[in-house]
Amino acid sequence: MSIVPLIWLSRPMPSIPPLKPMRWSIFCRVIDNYGDAGVCLRLARELAHRGQSIDFFIDNQEILSWMEPEIHPNIKVRVWSSKQEEEDWLLKNQGFYVGENDLFADVIVEAFGCEIPAAFKELISNQSKRGQQTTQWINLEYLSAEGYAQRNHGLMSPILSGPGEGSHKWFFYPGFTKLTGGLLIENKIREKINTSIPDTQISSPFKIGLFCYANAPLVQLLTDLRKHCEHSERKIVINISKGNQGDVQKFMSELIMTELQISKDSSETSLSLCLLDSLTQNDFDEMLWNNDLNFVRGEDSLIRAIWAGKPWIWQIYNQSNGAHFTKLNAFLDLMECPLFIKEIHWGWNLFGDYNFALPSSKDARKWADWSAWCLQIRSKLLEQEDLVTQLMKFVDEKRQKTVEY
Question: What is the pLDDT of residues 189-230, one digit of tens each?
Fold first, then answer.
């Protein structure tokens, strides 16, 4: 068993900047998966915990019934119609109060290029035409380790035409360096990290969390895991999370019983599946902490796996022009990823001629190195200010130029 030095664990809690309670409007669209909504919900919840008032606009309210069944009292969930001709309904039929001088929100967060409604842009434009844009319009961008995230973070973008003409918004880039907007992390997760003692020992049964897109090399994964079971007495349990893109759970169930002829009953075989129900964000986070290896996808679950500190494999969202490989490699390079872990990621993401394969269960050195690397980058990323703290400071700085407290 390998224990990480305690100097990695003891870390003071970040100071939360004093900020007058304000009204935030966070706009989110659920595209083809739940990652965008997951990030926006975590952002809204953490702001609410820090005393802010949130109007959370989402175009698929149903997913909150399982993702966050108990909404924080400071968060007002508002259904966001996707039809252009119904934009006025947002203001007229939901009791959404527009105050003096068209101040309907102190801060608007336009998440991941979702384009806030024209009616809201016009209200911001009206402020600017009176000489003072009191609503801070934040364009929250996707997470990236590429250089443009540092270069563009915090830049202002003037609106030259359309319903928002004359106003401006600010680009806010989450990221992995101190020159970006940081990462989402709750104080309770920091406390858990500070009080836990990492253990790189491989457990039995070996628990794997699988949260992936349907185009992952699932046949190779199961074939590889069966080989591990044949050469080891250790049992393996695969906890498969539900997802929105393709039915990975159904595919894995059929595959493991037909092509590989392996039972789902863990009492009968050394390799078994556990099909998980839809998890709340808190339960999903806890699941990652309880696994020995986590397969994660997209943006939100990657960060959650990093905080869990267990070995993880990231499947990046596929882009037709291959840009996702550049994004993947930029992240792995920035994190000084060991070559054997890079090759695992390349195989899992179907990059070039790389085939997916895990280290042998008997190769304790590689598994220990993998665990140590995950703990090192977690420790490194904890040193930067978190996204919510940085965002609150950023907004406070911009508002002080337009609003007197």
Answer: 999 999 887 665 667 789 999 999 888 999 899 888 888 887
The one-character DSSP state at 133 is: -
Q: How many domains does the chain have?
A: 2
Phi/psi at 191 (nearest 5 deg)? -60, -40
Element holding 258 (H helix, E strand): none
Classify the phi-psi angles of 391: left when phi > 0, otherwise alpha if psi is within -120 to 50, otherwise beta: alpha
**DSSP code at position 276:** P
Between CA 391 and CA 397, with CA 392 as vertex, the angle to 5 degrees is 95
> Does residue 405 sit within a domain?
no
Sign of CA dihedral 390, 177, 172, 45: negative
Q: Which of 337, 322, 348 is nearest to 380 (CA)?
A: 337
Rg (CA), the chain: 23
Bridge partner residues of 77 (DSSP): 56
- pLDDT tens-digit profile of 25-38? 999 988 767 888 99
370 domain-assigned: yes
